[in-house]
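Hello again,

I reread your note about wanting to compare the complex against the isolated chains. To keep things tidy I'm splitting this into two emails, and this first one only covers the full assembly. Below are the input lines as submitted, including protein chains and any nucleic acid or small-molecule components. They are followed by the predicted structure of everything together. The single-chain runs will come separately.
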Amino acid sequence: MKRVFVVLLAWLVMGAFMLAGCQKKESGWQELVVGVGRDTVDPNGGMWESRGLVFETLVSLDQQGEPLPLLAKKWLVSADGKEYTFFLRENVQFHDGSRFDARSLKENVDRLRSVWGKYPLAKVEIIGDYSVRFCLTRPYPLFLWHLSQIKDGMIVSPGALKGASGSDVVVAAPVGTGPYRLKEHVGGQSWTMEANEGYWQGDVGIKRIKYFVIPDAHSRVMALESGQIQITGISPLSRIAAGDMQLIEKNKGLVLKHVPSYVVRPLAFNTKKGIMTDPLLREALVKAVNRADIDTVLKPGGTTLATPVSPVSPYYLKDLENDGNRRHDLAEAKELLKRAGWENKGGNVLQKAGKPLQVELIYSQTEPEMAQIASIIQQQLKAVGVEMKISQIESGALFTALAKGEYDIIAAPGIGSSSLDFSMDYHSQGKYSVAADRELDKMLEAFDGAVSIEQQKTIGRQIQEKILKDNLVLLFINKYRSFAHVAGLQGFEPALEEEVNLMRHIWKARLAGESRG
Amino acid sequence: MGSYIARRTLAAAISLAGVSLMTFLLVFLVPGDPAEMVAQARFGHGVVEWEIEMVRRTEGLDRPLAVQYLKWVSHLLQLDLGHSLINRQPVMSLICSRLPATLLLACSSLLLSLLAGVPAGVIAAVKKGTRLDSVLRIIALAGVSVPGFWLSYLLIIVFALKLKLLPVGGYGTLANLVMPSVVLAAGMAGLTARLLRASLLEVLQQDYIRAAVANGLSNSKILWKYALKNALLPVVTVIGLRVGMLLSGTVIIESIYGWPGLGKLMLDSIYTRDFPVVQGCVLVSAACFILLNTCVELIYAWLDPRIRWGTGR
Amino acid sequence: MGNRKVIAIMLLEIRNLTVRYRRSGDDWDRPAVSGLWVAVEQGEKLAVVGESGAGKTTIAHAVMGILPPMTRVEGEIVYRGQRIDSRMPEGIRGKEIVLIPQNAYNSLNPVLPAGTQLEDLQAEDGVPSPLRRQQLRSMLQRVRLTDPDAVLASFPHQLSGGMKQRVLLAMGLLREPRLIIADEPTKGLDPVRRLGVLELLKDLLAQKQQSLMLITHDIRAAVFLCDTVVMMYRGELVEKLPVSRLYEYSSHPYTIALLNASPQRGLQAGQNAGNGISTGGRGCSYVACCSQSVPVCGQERPVWREIYPGHLVRCHVVA
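Full-complex prediction:
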């Protein structure tokens, strides 16, 4: 029995150490701790949450989606829409001390092709120490909108660019003009951002921001509740699970906010081959589905839409949202099925020419709510005699199926709908396209080539109406970006135009409250 | 003895080569274009065609498979495991930064499980038939049956949220180590206790134990010196296997506690088709496993001299 | 012959011993040993002879207190005036009474060297470390092991059967016990080895005045080593006589049958067809195989009769 005492003693010693470890907590209010799901530190990586803290763009957007001056204090657009002249802000420095001016901007445009290569640029001229002219090959109404986004318009210190030329140039170090720099990176665990003391816009409120990696969504929420982190949910890799949202709402010390996302995910039909090429069948399924049931599942983190465009997009058309043609109507759905030749031969599933009415829905396992949504749709379709099979497959396999056209209904990857960047998803040549309609293609090409925003809006309406009339999609899902933080974080405005860099403007915020530990 | 070591080393090398080849092939046989998956991981879901092509070109994914494999092997022989396709970090440094965490967790879980499991097994065997024995056996069964993630959340709720004694997750202090180790140790301790109890009961029936009793040796000496060494043999085998599984990563525990270990790294890199990292992780895991197996065999030989020298003179 | 003291001092006394093994639940087997009375005097060498399964080893284990769990023991075992059946007092087991176990193959712990196992016994006696080696060497030489150091360093599986047995002998004699219980020391040995072991035993016992309880199926071994023999059949004693009277004057039918049975036939004296007299649970236990049985054998249990000083038999026919 002596051994038993030894064991107990060992436990007591461990316990003592453990308590000693607990005392080591950091001081509170000068540091904001963010809970993220993965270590994404990479100045070239599109998923790095702090890119928006380190780098800045020429312009930013206001609440209405109109461009605001940032690193460019003024700009002029030519009448034909092909020339943009930017007048740059003076007295702005990169973190390494070099100056931000026309020369450094041109170097970015010339060398950092991964960011600037996507624009139809004819040439870029320096016309003064702080003025640059961009000459486009064709009118590009979305130019300013794109430039406001970090991934499409970030400006790096030329000294931090490395590489031979063209698309091989990479950003070697995160050196920009932004309010924070990267101080420390502990691989796989955390990274810390430190305030840029000489930031040109003003005093940075929170001196240090630490990003703490907690891969599991539930653990992140628990860490938020216990006070170990102060904000989470600010990027696609740090989502808050829908089930935990009620927990956060109940907690008086925490704030839960939902910001509409631009991303709209369609449950698209396969109009290229298979059973869903029949327009009557598609219309029937659309009418058979009752979106209200699905909305219950998505609440409060999202909603279903009847249009391909998010309500926060300037191209959103409210009248289309309430289009009577797509409303839930069981009787009409059954009628349509009959007209399409599907008969009730006894049993639960309709038949035509001896074959039962079976469709398959495939989705990727990275979307947790899809399982519930899929089974709700399955039930609803059963009511009209359609048997729907559900397959959850790995995302790599999903893309292969999409490319090969091997599906009936697919939950396709999100589309950035504010720019109506449909070409990838609705143009027949698009890599992830779910449509193959020459008429639609022509409209999309006209949209791309539009000269002005107004012209774009007009064509945009036509495109949306066609997508809806042809019933290319069963329904659209718009998830909100939901994030939660402690009540003591005040003055935080999320950057609505960013998917990953939601915390771009955090430098304006302040963290109140007592220090911990 | 020398030829024995040489043979085992050769066998290990062949195993590793086979494992690496299979993993390499699997990355490409699984559906999904690797270049596309990598581009998505790097740039987000709104990735465009030319970004994918850029990835394909710069990472040499357009070359034939055999060429890619040979290139990888030649780098490997120079101890260069390549770079992550997602964030361009050297794979070796990625793995080295995660390996200590995995090893630490594995060691502390093993230690905990032995500290709890061995005394429990011995007590249960010695007090066979009593209520204490039944209680210990039920606890051991619970330890084996309870799912890891459930226990993890339970511990977090009790110790991190309600009692505020421990942090929810992270890595660095002893406080971080406690909960994940306990969760992992629970299963192994239960297994150890049950196995040891059964094995010990069997050993205690043996003639040589009876002879030792007849010779008047004290009960505790018989138990700890004469019986236990024999009883540990089957336990060592099973626990050795379990620890091998620990080394290749306990993904769920690592995710829940934010423990920066090898398992999560491997899983993430599989999803993003970051195949240099996958390769590196698998190789390191396999190497650790082989090393561990050898250790187990050595322990076995130490415990049982019949294995050491073979039977008979 | 040994020196018989004029006043015999009772070393070990077994009184009315009955041992039952449990099969399962409340199901108890027929007793392995039934109503046994046997005694060993100081300096006496007693042989318990019978076939396998007669219950001889059970007696040895009962004395040593190493019966398996789930056994029911009735009766008393007294050693030098102290009762040792319900609780074994300190310092007796392994020191004053030792057992040389039957199964040499598995009686040594396979994971410890022979030397360690011997040293553990020395530790029990408090022999100081520097003296231990020397003591072991001389002990091993006494049991005629030629290379004691090699043996001490070896593991049991590296020793031959004969060597293992000698080590067990050494273990038994190391602490200079008063009573040695040797369980089938010649079991399974060829004639040459048998003789070697018997001579060794005789030699060892001659050196000190130790008592012996020899358990064997081999009558000749009993004759060679011992003064007194008791015959055991199916858990009961049937005859007790001095060795000198064994060949000519043994009286119990079983004893005679055993003497006549040859080794080749595997000593199957206990399986002769009887005279067809049934017991129904009463009567003599040997009646089913006894060629001399008469009707009363099936009805009444025979009682002990002394047919000569020091010679007792339990049989209706003989006495």
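For quick reference: Residues 2-77 of chain B form one domain.

B.
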